[in-house]
Specification:
The complex is a heterotrimer of chains A (about 300), B (about 280) and C (about 425). With about 300 residues, chain A is mainly α. Helices cover about 80% and strands about 0% of the residues of chain A. Chain A contains 15 helices and two strands. The longest helix of chain A is centred in the N-terminal third of the chain and has 27 residues. Chain B is mainly alpha-helical and about 280 residues long. Chain B has a domain of about 200 residues. Helix content of chain B is about 75%, strand content about 5%. In chain B, strands 1-2 form a two-stranded antiparallel ribbon. In chain B, a hairpin with a 2-residue loop joins β1 and β2. Chain C has about 425 residues and is an alpha/beta fold. Chain C folds into two domains: about 200 residues, Response regulator (Rossmann fold); about 160 residues, Response regulator (Rossmann fold, 3-Layer(aba) Sandwich). Chain C is built from 13 helices and 14 strands. The longest helix of chain C has 20 residues. Classes of the chains: A mainly alpha (about 300), B mainly alpha (about 280), C alpha/beta (about 425). Chains A and C meet through α1, α2, α5, β1 and α13 of A and α1, β2, α3, α4 and α7 of C.
């Protein structure tokens, strides 16, 4: 692992900057940034699995949803304290994800994407039909315990969560394990040829991804205070996660973060200009054009411009 | 029993029609066109606009819808697929983005309340105690005709054989003098037209709404994945498996679990036999 | 680069809040749906009229809107935007059930007076009962779905049983929470109260493409009529019913048939359908005050919905009541005082010398005599003839095959007859 002085400075600057932000910006902006933080967590989770290893997951809302539903049901229906329910939710996400999706990891490419998509749709339909007294059925749940009150507190909590995850993932990716994961994405055969177990590597990437997704999903639902299946297992939600990661630049930790902030702020700052349905159209179109222009993401774009 | 048979045949015909265009692109370009559902949606809305809002003849509506479909397919190939050629994942993501943009566009133009299309062919028949609308009967007949036509085309015509060649090995085809780019363009155009026509029938059976692109996309995915890439016969057979499965679940078991069984079918087939039930890799 | 964007965003927000002196009303709802637009336009017209009369407490009212796109998460963000960036004093909502449930925790946090005009979900009123303190700012001025279903039972007894002579029903319900709630109420009461036997309950998936097997199953039960409960993709059910010419009568709840655009949207393939509707509905005779509102509405807007849905009326009258309550309570800042004043608002609209519509709320401990429960912060409704305390919680609306619609129940409000589609022989 190579840690250079400027790494420490950059991370320190980012952390200090983000924590000082509430002193200078309004509460409305902080509320937007909270969503950006959670989206960044989900995008990092997606990137750990899909960006690194090339196994594109279309079912991340499936993992996030399991985490969110587990803790929501435990706290709301069984009065379990959040200190217990969140770890349980994370654990459950990892176990459920492993049981269900690991067999799918032997299928490559588009097929893997489709299986994960099918799982998301399956869970969406099951959540509404099975035990609606627990899940709240189609309407979902409201009045779920929230961890914080006020914009600043919510911002500090989500920022701490996001930065913790980002930093630990960044450190993890600096290790040889991280390099091996990226190698799986480039050429799985040759990784296997060099005597490493690709199955173990993939399982590791998958578990890490599920861990972050479960953790993010649990905190997210305790921030929102409500949970609706239509919004959770939604193609548009999936779209935002994937596009954040890709637009920022995959296989970098900073990329998904930048992508998430860009996407959230873009949608929010279009609101005063285009209050109606035009907003989603412009938002989608900008994302599409940017992606077509530079599929490697904003990070790559910055690198190219700074070189030129 | 006879009722289920009839209803199953009709629904399966519709599903085969929907899935055909998706299968073509998948087999030629190995690309999951996630915006395929958007063809159906745009086709349906175009038909609605031409024939119901402007009051033009129904046939004109279908023709305009098909033309818009061709245009969408060709544009998508030239602007998106060709630009991102080497990266399948990028194409898939870009098509997903396009579908979301198309959905927002439809909300913008038509609003988000759902609309119902008048039957393209009105009338009801009563066959063995089952009510059958002429509309879906025609959809089934057209579906079979298109499938057979496509099958013959792929096997007999020059362009069809070129498509076969490109789906087997694009490089090899290029060496033997076929322009894969032109074949791709033609295929995307055909796929767009098939999608738009399928969309008109699908919408005349259900409704038009800005989120309608998801359901037919999932049906197409189910049919093509379970059938195996590139198999016209496989698509036909599996459309019937999916259609009958649905009708039987709805009529005999639990109608609320309709979608669940289709999802389980996809997952099981993919996990156990990723190449699909009839899978060879090339168009056949 | 991000920080500059953030800072400029902040400046923008600051400018917006400085410019917005006076009273600021926020609209939350979908700005591309007929229902959302009904609420928005109802509020716009009410604000125009109030401003023309000199505003409220000497201040002019401005309206800002936040689109939810009918997405629950977007709803939370829209609410946050109204509360923290726009800093509105009062929020009027045209949200659907799960969107309202989504932003409710935010309302509890910010404690901004909020009026819901579309969702009728009884679960929200239950939240007011269980936790009155945190739900103080919340009001819903449409009769709750439970009240709608309860009155519908009387329709079953008076019309379906007595007049049509039907004894048995098959229920066709979508697998949503709405479907489940209505189905539960109808099945529990239909047999004992109306004497109609429930033969079977068929629950279907809302994404169902083909309803032929489901109608086949319904016919096999040999029940006298179908009772449908449909709020999502309702047009699929009704249009396939018409296209297949199912030889059984069908009535019930069909949310898509609540607006005048139903005929245009279905291309006419919707005749013969009847549905219960909140009040006032299409085909509903209007009192002079509400008629004036409709005239103003139609003079101002020429795009759909051409006639405001029921929630447009609720928004128009409700917004004026909220402002009147603010005047009594000295503004919106003291939420408890405002809520108390809001609860006392009482607008009685007469037609031909009798009570026609009433915009008022139930008292906190007031027990409704038919359902024997309380409905705090919910619109006042009446469940028994002669509807002299308030308007009925619902009316039954019939679409005829010639494209006209009329209210067919209760008798006091009826403008037409309950009829069967021409292909049903009974």
């Amino acid at each position: 692992m190579e840690l250079r002085w400027f790494h420490v400075v950059l991370w320190g600057g980012l952390i200090a900057g983000m924590f000082l932000l509430p002193q200078v910006v309004s509460n409305g902006t902080l509320r937007t940034l909270i969503f950006a933080n959670y989206l960044a967590v989900f995008a990092i989770s997606w990137d750990v699995l899909s960006g690194r290893t090339g196994y594109v997951s279309f079912g991340h809302p499936f993992l996030i949803g399991i985490g969110a539903y587990t803790t929501a049901i435990l706290t709301k229906r069984f009065d379990v304290p959040v200190e217990v329910s969140i770890p349980l939710a994370v654990l459950f996400t990892m176990v459920a994800g492993l049981l269900v999706l690991l067999p799918a990891l032997r299928i490559r490419g588009s097929y893997f994407a489709l299986v994960t998509l099918a799982f998301m749709e399956l869970l969406y339909q099951l959540v509404q039909v099975i035990r609606p007294d627990l899940t709240g059925g189609t309407r979902g749940m409201s009045g779920i315990q929230t961890l914080t009150r006020g914009a600043a507190n919510g911002y500090y909590l989500s920022t701490a969560l996001m930065l913790c995850i980002a930093l630990s993932m960044w450190l993890l990716m600096k290790t040889r394990l991280g390099t091996a994961l990226a190698a799986v994405g480039m050429n799985e055969e040759s990784v296997r040829g060099s005597g490493l177990s690709t199955t173990r590597l993939k399982a590791f990437a998958f578990l890490t991804s599920a861990f972050i997704a479960g953790l993010g999903g649990a905190f997210y639902v305790h921030y929102l205070g409500s949970l609706a299946p239509r919004a959770m297992f939604d193609i548009n939600f999936l779209f935002t996660i994937i596009v954040s990661a890709l637009l920022g630049g995959t296989s970098t930790i900073v990329g998904p973060m930048i992508g998430a902030f860009f996407m959230t702020c873009l949608l929010e700052y279009l609101r005063p200009v285009l209050p109606g349905a035009e907003r989603y159209f412009v938002y989608g179109a900008i994302a599409l054009i940017l992606y077509m222009y530079q599929p490697k993401g904003l990070v790559k774009l910055v690198q190219l411009t700074s070189k030129a | 029993m006879l009722q289920i048979l009839i209803q199953g045949l009709l629904l399966s015909g519709l599903y085969a029609l929907i899935a055909m265009g998706f299968m073509l692109i998948f087999s030629i370009g190995r690309v999951l066109n996630l915006a395929y559902g958007a063809y159906l949606m745009v086709g349906g809305y175009t038909y609605f606009w031409v024939s119901q809002s402007l009051g033009m003849p129904k046939l004109a509506g279908v023709v305009v819808a098909a033309a818009v479909g061709v245009l969408m397919g060709v544009l998508k190939y030239s602007l998106i697929v060709r630009t991102l050629r080497r990266d399948h994942v990028a194409v898939e993501i870009a098509t997903l983005m396009l579908a979301v943009v198309a959905q927002a566009g439809i909300v913008l133009v038509f609003g988000d309340s759902s609309k119902v299309l008048l039957p393209i062919v009105p009338g009801v028949l009563n066959v063995a105690g089952a009510s059958v609308t002429c509309n879906i009967l025609v959809a089934m007949i057209i579906s079979w005709a298109i499938l057979l036509g496509l099958y013959v085309c792929v096997r007999q015509t020059h362009t069809g054989r070129a498509m076969q060649a490109v789906s087997m090995d694009a490089k090899g085809a290029a060496i033997s003098g076929i322009d894969p780019d032109r074949i791709n363009l033609i295929t995307w155009g055909i796929s767009g037209a098939l999608g738009a026509i399928g969309g008109v029938f699908f919408a005349s059976y259900t409704q038009l709404s800005p989120s309608m692109w998801v359901a037919p996309l999932i049906i197409s995915i189910a049919v093509v994945i379970v059938g195996g890439i590139g198999s016209i016969i496989g698509t036909l057979v599996v459309a019937h498996i999916v259609g009958f499965l649905e009708v039987i679940v709805v009529a005999e078991l639990a109608p609320e679990l309709r979608g669940v069984f289709t999802m389980l079918l996809i997952i099981c087939v993919l996990a156990s036999r990723p190449q699909g039930l009839f899978g060879r890799e090339e168009l056949h | 680069m991000i920080k500059t964007a953030l800072l400029s965003g902040t400046c923008f927000a600051l400018m917006a809040s400085v410019a917005g002196a006076g009273i600021k009303v926020g609209f939350i709802g979908s700005m591309s749906s007929d229902t959302g637009l009904s609420t928005l336009r109802g509020a716009e017209i009410a604000i125009e009229e109030l401003n023309a009369d000199g505003g409220v407490m000497g201040e002019q009212i401005t309206l800002v809107s936040a689109d939810t796109g009918q997405d629950p998460t977007e709803g939370v963000r829209a609410y946050e935007y109204l509360a923290e960036t726009e800093e509105v004093d009062f929020i009027i909502s045209g949200s659907i059930d799960d969107v309202s449930l989504g932003w409710l925790p935010r309302m509890q946090e910010y404690r901004i007076p909020t009026l819901d005009t579309w969702t009728s979900y009884i679960g929200i009123i239950d939240m007011v009962v269980e936790d009155p303190e945190s739900m103080t700012p919340y009001f819903m001025n449409i009769a709750s779905d439970e009240a709608l279903a309860t009155l519908y039972i009387n329709f079953g007894a008076d019309v379906l049983k007595k007049k049509m002579g039907w004894d048995s029903v098959v229920i066709l319900a979508e697998d949503t929470a709405f479907g489940e709630a209505i189905t539960g109420l109808v099945t529990e009461a239909l047999a004992p109260v109306a004497g109609i036997e429930v033969k079977e309950i068929i629950t279907y998936d809302v994404a169902t493409v083909d309803f032929a097997p489901i109608f086949g199953r319904a016919q096999d039960t040999e029940a006298d009529f179908i009772y449908q409960v449909s709020s999502v993709n309702s047009q699929v059910v009704s249009s396939q019913y018409v296209k297949l010419q199912v030889p059984m009568a069908m009535t019930g709840v069909n949310v898509s048939a609540l607006g005048m655009e139903y005929w245009e949207d279905t291309g006419g393939a919707g005749g013969g359908i009847s549905t219960l509707s909140p009040v006032p509905s299409i085909g509903f005779k209007l009192d002079p005050v509400s008629q004036e509102f409709v005239d103003a509405y139609q003079a101002k807007y020429d795009s759909r919905p051409l006639l405001p849905h029921f929630n447009g009326f609720n928004a128009y009258h409700g917004l004026k009541q909220a402002m009147a309550a603010a005047e009594e309570a000295g503004g919106f800042d003291n939420v408890e005082a405002w809520a108390e004043a809001m609860q006392r608002q009482d607008l009685v609209l007469d037609l031909d010398g009798q009570l026609w519509l009433r915009y008022a709320f139930w008292g906190d401990d007031e027990v409704e005599p038919v359902t024997m429960r309380t409905y705090p912060h919910n619109a006042r409704f009446d469940l028994s003839e002669p509807f002299d305390d308030a308007q009925p919680s619902m009316v039954v609306v019939q679409w005829y095959e010639d494209g006209t619609a009329a209210v067919v129940y209760p008798d006091k409000y009826a403008t037409g007859e309950f009829t069967l589609p021409s292909w049903v022989s009974k």
